[in-house]
Specification:
The protein is mainly beta and 283 residues long. The protein has 4 helices and 25 strands. One of its GO terms (molecular function) is cysteine-type peptidase activity.
Length: 283
């Protein structure tokens, strides 16, 4: 008799009380729910493994989720990339349909359409907002007035994940981070692909299983190729150089691939597990 595989906690839309209706017949004794659409209201919010638990990933302003349970100030949510986890309920609002994303490293929302007016909020790259009105140099949003040059319509995604990865050069390393305030190796890859409207899981092991096609060990590498180790990933910016968020430098840095292979082999006794190419990229 074959034993059923243990569900991946990160992707299993159920807790001890509720389950998404798609799990009917797979779970018993839980309340089946459809989920309620909601939108994140803060620039960056940790997605937790449990109420007051540790950070799994992060969600940015304007991210859409489905709330499966709202209990004791915490919401159990199902995210657009399949992840589940807990966020403070006061960081959610009824579903808002965004129109633009922050397309620069960061930006500010101002109290008025005047660069000398007080700044009321700082937003990271990738945060999503709904434009309400257009002024000469600013867009009006529910968060405030944002410089027009800093926003990009959602129907105009970026085309080069490697270029987006390079935008994050120097960002400090943060385990589970997903923003220009701090991110980890898989967060860098996810942010880069999501900006190009390309689906991407949040963690390196899932990315290795889902993204692109495996390359032979002796294949010539090109810009945008992904290099995986156990628990780590980087992206090539040319045939010999990789950009990656790494704990060695505690930042997003460039590193010759040959140096990274030797360093990781020496320090962590880990070898490259795959080289993968995501087709259809603009490089």
């Amino acid at each position: 008799m074959t034993q059923a595989a243990t569900p991946d906690r990160r992707l299993w839309p159920a807790n001890a009380r509720v389950a998404h209706r798609t799990l009917a017949g797979q779970v018993y004794g839980l309340t089946l729910v459809d989920g309620t659409p909601a939108t994140l209201t803060h620039p960056v919010t940790d997605l937790m493994t449990a109420p007051d638990g540790r950070r799994d990933r992060q969600l940015l302003l304007g991210a859409d989720v489905s709330v499966l349970e709202d209990r004791a100030g915490w919401s159990f949510v199902h995210c657009h990339d399949g992840y589940v986890g807990y966020v403070p309920s006061d960081r959610l609002t009824a579903e808002v349909v965004p129109t633009h994303r922050v397309g620069t490293f960061a930006t500010h929302a101002y109290a008025a359409d005047d660069l000398k007016s007080p700044d009321v909020l700082q937003l990271p790259f990738g945060a999503r907002v709904r434009v309400l009105d257009e002024r000469r140099h600013f867009y009006e949003t529910p968060q405030g007035f944002i410089p027009k040059k800093h926003l990009r319509p959602l129907d105009r995604p970026f085309s080069s994940p490697a270029t987006i990865a390079q935008l994050h050069f120097g960002v400090p390393y943060l385990w589970g981070g997903n923003s220009t305030r701090g991110l980890d190796c898989s967060g860098l890859i996810a942010a880069s692909l999501h900006a190009c409207d390309m689906p991407c899981p949040g963690d390196a092991d899932l990315q290795e299983g889902a993204l692109g096609e495996a390359l032979p060990e002796d294949a010539d590498l090109q810009r945008g190729d992904l290099i995986f180790w156990r628990g780590h990933v980087g992206m090539m910016v040319d045939a010999a150089t990789m950009i990656h968020a790494n704990g060695n430098a505690m930042a997003v840095t460039y590193e010759p691939l040959a140096n990274a292979i030797l360093r990781i082999r020496t320090a962590e006794h880990s070898e490259v597990t795959s080289r993968r190419r995501v087709e259809g990229l603009s490089i």
